């Protein structure tokens, strides 16, 4: 429908109450009944109640759908995308107006099935599109012609597109300043594209491992750039004033594949179904409807959840567990009344030579004979035999083994997911917590804020007088206390509460105290940062799985707190906790000057 007809139609249905001659009303009703728009983010329901009289039909409360932007935390992926869009616009000398889309018109397009509808104009195939840059979420960004205004462009997000690729894409969703697309074909390959490296049979369809078609060196370089960009966006004053050191090279994961110690495949219940007649796909979400990997078009099916029987990122025992749990699901799926997520968490047992393996296994995922599955591994450095099982019960207590220390925690609770890199990262943290020029007779202290079940507290406890951990989850604190004891460590105290609770009772001398921060994705809050600056510790090591909130916090600490300006950023670098994905763990070290 062209704009003219549509706007005249809206004039009919906009008023709260209108009297419309019957033939026109019938047309309005049939048009309204076709509304099924993917782009509805917020809608005002259309009241379709019609009161018929002999000659006229009364249509009540006809309202247009309004587009309402979702509020996003600026440091969330959709918030960061806004900075990335502005960067791209700047490079191409464009303004936001010049890439804007009329989302409301699409939202109120009642004839979207018509060949000439506005929806069809927007949601189309575009050929020979060059991918220009990569976002921090690992997607390609491109500029394409605007479908309805030849003076404008559109910004397209292209998952699995790499800078330099020339691609065919399908636009399927429109936002005010960008469109979402599926990658259909790669006509010319980017020089960095290495499809020959792909191992995962679901790659290019499943969300998750997006970087398998890059060399590992390239992945590490991209993650280093992600950290630099995060500070450019969220700590611009530190960048402008040149008080930020160059981002260090990303520390690789010893295992680039088969490293994840926790996965959570899920299945959905078909809409309105009360019982499952057919076994639904069990696996991970599909990333759009891409078709560029022709050889894998049928792999995993076509539902929004792909049916996945192997995960190239998960450890061996989790893949065995996945096979077991899929077999169980084949038999039991009819018992489920709604969709569910299945937990597969690795459990590590230090082998006790006085007992048989079977005596030590505990509960875990079972094979077709009903036996708990396990694999044996060796810690060659310490000459210790380890047994790995796969736990599926959220409440079961599981163990991790890091650097000779054992950590117990509840299977459903947080613990770092890549065991292979933990020895490297805990060593790095320990070394960077050291207060320079420490004298032998002067004791040093440690504070572990957001301590979880005590990973950094325990691994950094040697050589310091006392460690104080603080953590909001009482359950995690109780495990942290037990973990210290289990490993024969007596100098750790743990407090339950928000991180800032620490400052109510802290008694260690600030000049001799180092602080570890390891907050959740949203980062620290200003109250905590202010009190931290007030306490004025000798060194701070800030670890984060969201470098964007880390950059925001570091700038706030240095620029907005009274004593923050007395600190210098000693180093900033990534650790690759999540190979083959876009995620990076960032570690920033601050010292007092
Ligand atoms: C990324 S995890 C780090 C845990 C631990 N450092 C580790 O490596 O296992 C963040 C932890 O912060 C805790 N947390 C979240 N908000 C908090 C707050 N306001 N104060 C203290 N702890 C908090 C969570 O419960 C979680 O255990």
TrEMBL record:
InterPro entries: MeTrfase_TrmA_AS (IPR030390), MeTrfase_TrmA_CS (IPR030391), NA-bd_OB-fold (IPR012340), SAM-dependent_MTases_sf (IPR029063), TRAM_dom (IPR002792), tRNA_(uracil-5-)_MeTrfase (IPR025795), U5_MeTrfase_fam (IPR010280). Keywords: Methyltransferase, S-adenosyl-L-methionine, Transferase, tRNA processing. Its EC number is 2.1.1.35. Residues 120-185 form the TRAM domain. It is an enzyme of class 2 (transferase). S-adenosyl-L-methionine binds at residues 416, 450, 471, 518. The active site is at residue 545. The keyword S-adenosyl-L-methionine applies. GO terms for biological process: methylation; RNA modification; tRNA processing. GO terms for molecular function: tRNA (uracil(54)-C5)-methyltransferase activity, S-adenosyl methionine-dependent. It catalyses: uridine(54) in tRNA + S-adenosyl-L-methionine = 5-methyluridine(54) in tRNA + S-adenosyl-L-homocysteine + H(+). PROSITE patterns: SAM_MT_RNA_M5U, SAM_MT_RNA_M5U_2, TRAM, TRMA_1, TRMA_2. Catalyzes the formation of 5-methyl-uridine at position 54 (m5U54) in all tRNA. May also have a role in tRNA stabilization or maturation. Belongs to the class I-like SAM-binding methyltransferase superfamily. RNA M5U methyltransferase family. This is tRNA (uracil(54)-C(5))-methyltransferase.
């Amino acid at each position: 429908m062209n704009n003219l007809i549509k706007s005249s139609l809206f004039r009919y249905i906009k008023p709260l109450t209108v009297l419309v001659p019957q033939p026109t009303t019938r047309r309005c009703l049939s048009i309204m009944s076709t509304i099924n728009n993917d782009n509805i983010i917020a809608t005002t329901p259309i009241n379709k109640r019609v009161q018929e009289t002999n000659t006229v039909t009364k249509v009540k409360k006809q309202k247009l759908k309004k587009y309402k932007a979702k509020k996003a935390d600026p440091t969330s992926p959709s918030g960061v995308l806004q900075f990335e869009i502005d960067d791209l616009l700047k490079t191409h000398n464009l303004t936001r107006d010049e890439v804007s889309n009329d989302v409301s018109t699409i939202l109120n397009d009642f004839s979207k099935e018509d060949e000439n509808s506005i929806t069809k104009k927007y949601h189309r195939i575009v050929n020979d599109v060059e991918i220009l840059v990569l976002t921090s979420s690992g997607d390609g960004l491109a500029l394409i012609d605007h479908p309805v205004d030849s003076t404008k462009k559109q910004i397209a997000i292209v998952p699995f597109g790499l800078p330099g690729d020339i691609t065919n894409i399908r636009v399927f969703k429109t936002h005010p300043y960008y469109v979402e697309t599926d990658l259909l074909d790669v006509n010319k390959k980017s020089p960095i594209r290495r499809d020959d490296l792909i191992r995962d049979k679901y790659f290019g369809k499943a969300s998750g491992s997006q970087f398998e078609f890059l060399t590992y060196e390239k992945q590490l370089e991209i993650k280093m750039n992600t950290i630099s960009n995060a500070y450019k966006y969220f700590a611009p004053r530190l960048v402008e004033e040149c008080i930020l050191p160059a981002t260090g090279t990303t520390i690789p994961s010893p295992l680039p594949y088969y490293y994840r110690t926790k996965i959570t495949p899920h299945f959905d219940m078909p809409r309105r179904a009360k019982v499952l007649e057919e076994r639904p796909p069990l696996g991970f979400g599909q990333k759009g409807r891409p078709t560029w990997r022709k050889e894998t078009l049928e792999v995993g099916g076509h539902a929004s959840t792909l049916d996945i029987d192997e995960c190239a990122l998960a450890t061996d025992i989790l893949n065995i567990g996945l096979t077991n749990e899929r077999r169980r699901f084949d038999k039991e799926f009819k018992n489920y009344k709604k969709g569910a997520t299945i937990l597969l968490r690795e459990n590590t047992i230090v082998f006790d030579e006085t007992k048989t393996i079977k005596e030590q296994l505990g509960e875990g995922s079972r094979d077709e004979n009903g036996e708990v599955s396990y694999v044996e591994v060796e810690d060659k450095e310490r000459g210790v035999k380890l047994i790995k099982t796969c736990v599926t019960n959220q409440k079961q207590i599981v163990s991790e083994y890091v650097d000779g220390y054992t950590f117990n925690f509840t299977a459903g609770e947080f613990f770092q997911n890549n065991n292979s890199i933990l020895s490297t990262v805990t060593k790095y943290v320990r070394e960077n917590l050291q207060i320079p020029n420490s004298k032998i007779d002067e004791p040093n202290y440690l504070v572990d804020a957001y301590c979880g079940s005590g990973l950094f507290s325990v691994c950094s406890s040697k050589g310091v007088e006392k460690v104080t951990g603080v953590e909001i989850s009482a359950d995690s604190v109780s495990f942290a206390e037990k973990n210290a004891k289990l490993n024969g460590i007596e100098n750790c105290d743990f407090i339950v509460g928000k991180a800032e609770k620490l400052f109510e009772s802290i008694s260690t001398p600030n000049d001799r105290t180092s602080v570890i921060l390891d907050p959740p994705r949203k980062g620290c809050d200003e109250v905590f940062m202010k009190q931290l600056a007030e306490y004025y510790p000798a060194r701070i090591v800030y670890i984060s799985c969201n470098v964007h909130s880390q950059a925001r916090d570091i700038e706030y600490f240095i620029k907005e707190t009274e004593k923050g300006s007395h600190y210098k950023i000693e180093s900033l670098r990534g650790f690759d906790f999540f190979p083959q994905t876009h995620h990076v763990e960032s570690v920033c070290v601050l010292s007092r000057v």
